[in-house]
């Protein structure tokens, strides 16, 4: 089973790129972020024509998350992160697909630091960690997947010394990411490539992609009750180089199916 995440940075404007990648990569489950489209403007016809069912939570101009699945039923659990009924930003959607809990997230950026946006990011992380602990206590096969807007460590950023006061790399958010791992969540890509520089985002400015001056923001974390099924994974970096592509690249993993030995 192939599971992927892709911050599309505007699903309608970059729909040809998304459809081209879906055809090329053929993932079974896909989590999308930054739809930048209201609920009624999600391109469900084109997604269906590509062979996928979908659930989504849109938002005009900003944010927005979606889960796509090929030849599998999607059972939506919730489309907002519990803990703050006044938070109307579309950043979280949760579903069950093939006995796996899929948590698609677009964690707040938090810049500029310091300030209210960074405070919102920390409060969002606190709510998110509470939800992830429920999966651990229930011993569920669950996947936390999406754009975390967190750079976990020095290997995940070009010239880390320049990012120390950026909300993506602040000590507080890296600590929170590390605490998830301590609770048993496996950073799938880093576990497969423990010593390599791996990036998933390259800014449009300063020829960042050409220079490979990137950062790793897009993650796939596996609960202890599914992590042993991890087989392979990677970043489709070349997609970032396509015309009119997102500034993120798709990230994917492959899991053994349940009928295979674990």
UniProtKB/TrEMBL annotation:
Keyword Manganese: yes or no? yes
How is the cofactor bound, as the UniProt entry phrases it? Answer: Probably binds two magnesium or manganese ions per subunit.
Which UniProt key words apply to this protein? Hydrolase, Magnesium, Manganese, Metal-binding
Question: Which residues belong to any copy of the Endonuclease/exonuclease/phosphatase domain?
Answer: 4-248
**Catalytic site residues?**
106, 147 (proton donor/acceptor), 248 (proton acceptor)
A Gene Ontology BP annotation from the UniProt entry: DNA repair
**A Gene Ontology molecular function term of the record:** endonuclease activity
Residues the record annotates as the site (Important for catalytic activity) are 218
Its needed co-factors are: Mg(2+); Mn(2+)
* Metal-binding keyword on record: yes
A Pfam family cross-referenced in the UniProt record is: Exo_endo_phos
Q: Which family does it belong to?
A: Belongs to the DNA repair enzymes AP/ExoA family.
The name on file for this protein is Exodeoxyribonuclease III
Q: What is the lineage of its organism?
A: Bacteria, Pseudomonadati, Bacteroidota, Flavobacteriia, Flavobacteriales
